[in-house]
Design goal:
Elements (H helix, E strand, L loop, with lengths): L3 E5 L4 H12 L8 E5 L3 H18 L4 E5 L2 H5 L4 E4 L6 H13 L11 H25 L4 E4 L4 H11 L4 E4 L3 H12 L7 E8 L2 E9 L2 E2 L1 H10 L1 H6 L1 H10 L7 H4 L10 H7 L13 H22 L11 H9 L5 E8 L12 E9 L2 E4 L7 H23 L2 H9 L2 H6 L2 H15 L15
Parallel strand pairs: 1-2, 1-4, 2-3, 4-5, 5-6
Antiparallel strand pairs: 7-8, 8-9, 10-11, 11-12
Helix pairs in contact: 1-2, 1-14, 4-5, 4-13, 4-18, 5-6, 5-15, 6-15, 15-16, 16-18
């Protein structure tokens, strides 16, 4: 029987196009119904055109539908992919600009810290609406989230709808593994690794080349080759100090701790000279958003004019669907799940990113045990802040949100308690139109 896969936020052109391409490479999905849903007519039309080009190029018997009706897209779906953005650059900019006013310098701001927390407050209500529809109209569907802040959104959905099968996916695990393999001259097919922690701050607990520990080769490359050190200055410094390599880029990770962005001299030393894809300078992603505001249509039209590529990419979604309701080939990936006896020294029930097996049985995370102590300290701070933020977002409790920001490593390295309170109150005011769960109670008093 033909399967149905729904894309909510299908106007995310690059993600949706790539994931659909991957899905259709599996025999079990060649005749699938691809249900595209977005609230933006123009973006939806562009994505539909791109997906139809893939179907035509591959001569697939797949069916493509496009709708602004979320229920119509979700009803009867076997799989649901979420790639939404709540609020455009005009509100997203306040996540970056208000902290900067208080000297909290943000590079990306979509994962944690004050910027990520307020992005969660805006985004969690529509995310819960989406999975509420899934529970009603497609209760057996596998829900894969690509929307950030990954950990906090997954934690909110998983706690509010525990009977649903929900996980979150991030390409940083396989992306970083490929980067490290390249640094030591190893073919990726000869590399194995075991990676665990929290989203964007998971660590390769082992990294092996043909069964042998490759970490000495990585350390040698970083210490002896300036071009490799400079490619990921922040992450390389973290590795040289913590002894394990972290998954997400230097720009992101510079925000998640107190070591790199609390003083201007440190920002200049570690956050402005990197040569990787995500340099650490202030408001990197915000600049990208504003640039795309003016030329996104032209860029998409250029992409639509290019020949269609049918080769499967490196994202996990299609292989997960295939393992569970396709040809049932078991697939291992790193996913975001709740910490129910998975990582022993992180908070019970928090969102962790760990190896997960997808099969006919569904999603089965691997027991990791205890992280090395130094990694657990770092992960614990962020995970506990995320727990507070999610509770505040669901309960409409502004004070819990304040406490989550108060203990954020970068914020607490830069601001006093009273300065943090003032910043949080200003951010609440900037976001008030997106926060129905707070019912207007968005001022944190003394």
């Amino acid at each position: 029987m033909a399967k149905k896969i729904a894309f909510i936020g299908a106007g995310s052109f690059g993600f949706t196009r790539g994931l659909v391409r991957d899905i259709l490479t599996f025999d079990a999905f060649k005749d699938a119904t691809i249900a595209l849903m977005d609230i933006d007519d123009e973006r939806l039309a562009f994505t539909k055109a791109a997906v139809e080009k893939i179907v035509a190029a591959g001569k697939y018997p797949a069916k493509v539908t496009a709708t602004k009706d979320r229920v119509e897209a979700i009803k009867g779906a076997d799989g649901v992919v979420i790639t939404i953005l709540q609020g455009g650059p005009q509100v997203f900019r306040t996540d970056i600009e208000i902290p900067k006013k208080y000297k909290v310098d943000i590079n990306v701001g979509d994962t944690r810290g004050p910027s990520g927390i307020f992005r969660t407050l805006r985004t969690l209500p529509p995310m819960l609406d989406i999975v509420r529809d899934v529970e009603k109209y497609a209760p057996n569907a596998i829900v894969l989230n690509y929307t950030n802040p990954m950990a906090m959104l997954c934690r909110g959905m998983q706690s509010e709808f525990p009977k649903l099968s929900v996980t979150g996916l991030c390409h940083s695990v396989q992306g970083t593994a490929g980067m490290l393999a390249k640094w030591i001259g190893a073919p990726m097919k000869e590399i194995t690794y075991f990676c665990a922690g929290i989203n964007h701050q998971a660590f390769y607990l082992d990294f092996k080349w043909n069964g042998k520990d490759a970490y000495p080769l990585i350390r040698k490359a970083i210490n002896e080759k300036p071009e490799i050190y400079n490619e990921e200055q922040v992450r390389n410094e973290m590795y040289l100090a913590l002894d394990y390599y972290v998954t997400e880029s230097s720009g992101h990770n510079s925000e998640y701790n107190a070591w790199f962005r609390k003083r201007q001299d440190l920002i200049e030393k570690y956050c402005t000279n990197g040569t990787g894809w995500n340099p650490g300078h202030h408001a990197y992603i915000l600049e990208h958003y504003f640039k795309r505001m003016h030329d996104w249509k032209d860029l998409i039209k250029q992409e639509l004019d290019k020949p269609v590529k049918l080769e499967r990419g490196h994202e996990y979604a299609a292989s997960i669907f295939n393992a569970i309701f396709g040809d049932n080939a078991v697939f291992e990936f790193n996913g975001n799940v709740r910490n129910f006896n998975i990582i022993d020294n992180l908070p019970h029930g928090c969102c962790v990113e760990v190896p997960v097996f997808a099969s006919q049985r569904g999603l089965n995370p691997v027991h990791v045990g205890a992280l090395p102590a130094q990694l657990a300290v770092l992960n614990n701070i962020s995970a506990r802040c995320e727990e507070l933020a999610v509770e505040g977002a669901i309960e409409g409790d502004a004070r819990k949100v304040f406490h989550a920001v108060l203990f954020d490593p970068l914020t607490s390295a830069v601001l006093s308690m009273e300065e943090t309170r003032a910043m949080v109150n200003e951010m609440f005011q900037a976001n008030k139109d997106y926060l129905p769960q707070f019912k207007g109670k968005i001022t944190v008093g003394r």
